[in-house]
């Protein structure tokens, strides 16, 4: 099936004003199907990934598209919104719709409930889906190159932080099994002073031989305060009695701790370097000042918010659309006499995490945000639910600021009427 198959005799000679392409992608190939406005299959086949494949797709579309029609008359449905292939489709001027895999799976059930699945069948479903329901789907945003660069470094920075958390938990688990005194000595295992001392003395016997001078030197390297008090407390904790572990197990665990400490130290250095790249790329964006003016947003969080929202001015029709994408707005389930309002859990987790941290920080950065949160809590709403509502309001404020190209204003954002309405 490497060669494209036409739908029938004369199919190559027929021209249509609108083409609908379903693209089921894999790592090294793409199964595609081309339909016209009536749903008639014009061609299908398998294309290789890369320059050769995209050239063959352009040629295929050109054979079936009317001479007076432009690339905007081509609608492509694909289950991803990133990668060189998608960028090539957008650059060609096609309307590219990134279909959620869950939506595609549900749509496929319209044809068959048996659970049968094939790549060619998925390409057919995607083509049919964008032909009939494209008004319900979200096209791939035309973000600027600067916003794309911010997304790359911001996501990589967050991935390294998540990796550090996983490695820290593994280190904690190892210490808990043979050296629990270290957990009492260090509040945070991923700090430079804790990692330096654990790399130097990864076993209870070695840690007990650490001097106050050695501990103080590590604290000075980490720029800690109250060094004499801290050094004395750490030395006492490391010398505390604990249940014995066999010498063989201790030696093995010590090797694991030393390796984990070295890995975490390397991660800390790369995270700091990548954070500088995040700030540098973010500062080059024209909306950077507007985002930084929002309460609770610093350079890193603001970069994450920009990366996940994008900067295509046509992507969000109104504040509600932005809130829905952010996952901060609730969903309503109504059936008969029963009606429930629930939080959205199908959402962009990176964006949701950034907005949650913004809402938490805004409680101390904005008097209006604090009053809004307190009014919600006064109704008996839980802390996390109140933070979600505050985050939802902050997304609406951000949308207004970006739409009007104006920085945040405390007086404009938090009118007395808004707070009274929440309290009521």
From TrEMBL:
Residue ranges of domain Transposase IS110-like N-terminal in the record: 21-180
Single GO biological process annotation from the record: DNA transposition
InterPro entries in the record: Transp_IS110-like_N, Transpos_IS110, Transposase_20
Domain named Transposase IS116/IS110/IS902 C-terminal: residues: 289-373
Coiled coil: 257-284
Pfam families, A to Z: DEDD_Tnp_IS110, Transposase_20
Residues annotated as signal peptide: none
GO molecular function, one term: transposase activity
Keywords, sorted A to Z: Coiled coil
Listed NCBIfam families: transpos_IS110 (NF033542)
Name of the featured protein: Transposase IS116/IS110/IS902
Species the sequence originates in: Frankia casuarinae (strain DSM 45818 / CECT 9043 / HFP020203 / CcI3)
């Amino acid at each position: 099936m490497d060669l494209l198959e036409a739908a029938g005799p004369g199919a190559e000679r027929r021209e249509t004003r609108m083409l609908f392409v379903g693209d089921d992608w894999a790592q090294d190939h793409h199964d595609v199907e081309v339909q016209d406005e009536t749903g008639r299959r014009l061609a299908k086949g398998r294309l290789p990934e890369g320059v050769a494949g995209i050239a063959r797709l352009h040629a295929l579309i050109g054979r079936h598209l009317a001479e007076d029609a432009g690339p905007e008359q081509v609608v492509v449905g694909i289950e991803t919104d990133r990668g060189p292939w998608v960028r090539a489709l957008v650059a060609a001027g096609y309307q590219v719709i990134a279909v959620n895999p869950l939506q595609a799976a549900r749509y496929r059930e319209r044809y068959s409930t048996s659970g049968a699945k094939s790549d060619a069948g998925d390409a057919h479903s995607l083509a049919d889906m964008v032909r009939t329901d494209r008004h319900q789907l979200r096209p791939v945003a035309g973000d600027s190159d600067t916003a794309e660069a911010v997304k790359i470094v911001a996501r990589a920075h967050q991935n390294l932080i998540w990796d550090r958390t996983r490695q820290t938990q593994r280190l904690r688990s190892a210490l808990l099994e043979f050296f629990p005194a270290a957990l009492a000595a260090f509040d945070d295992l991923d700090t430079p002073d804790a990692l330096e001392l654990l790399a130097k003395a990864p076993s209870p016997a070695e840690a007990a031989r650490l001097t106050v001078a050695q501990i103080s030197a590590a604290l000075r390297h980490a720029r800690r305060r109250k060094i004499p008090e801290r050094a004395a407390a750490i030395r006492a904790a490391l010398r505390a009695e604990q249940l014995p572990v066999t010498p063989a197990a201790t030696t093995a665990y010590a090797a694991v701790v030393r390796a984990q400490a070295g890995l975490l130290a390397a991660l800390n250095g790369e995270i700091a370097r990548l954070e500088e790249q995040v700030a540098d790329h973010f500062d080059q964006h024209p909306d950077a000042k507007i985002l930084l003016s929002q309460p609770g947003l610093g350079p890193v969080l603001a970069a994450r918010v920009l990366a996940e929202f994008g900067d295509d001015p046509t992507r969000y029709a109104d504040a509600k659309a932005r809130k829905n994408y952010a996952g901060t707005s609730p969903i309503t389930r109504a059936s008969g006499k029963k009606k429930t309002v629930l939080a959205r859990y199908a959402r962009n987790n990176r964006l949701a995490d950034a907005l949650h941290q913004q809402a938490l920080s805004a409680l101390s950065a904005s008097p209006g945000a604090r009053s809004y949160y307190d009014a919600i809590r006064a109704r008996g709403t839980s802390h996390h639910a109140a933070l979600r509502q505050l985050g939802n309001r902050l997304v609406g404020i951000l949308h207004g600021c970006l739409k009007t190209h104006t920085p945040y204003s405390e007086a404009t954002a938090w009118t007395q009427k808004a707070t009274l309405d929440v309290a009521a």
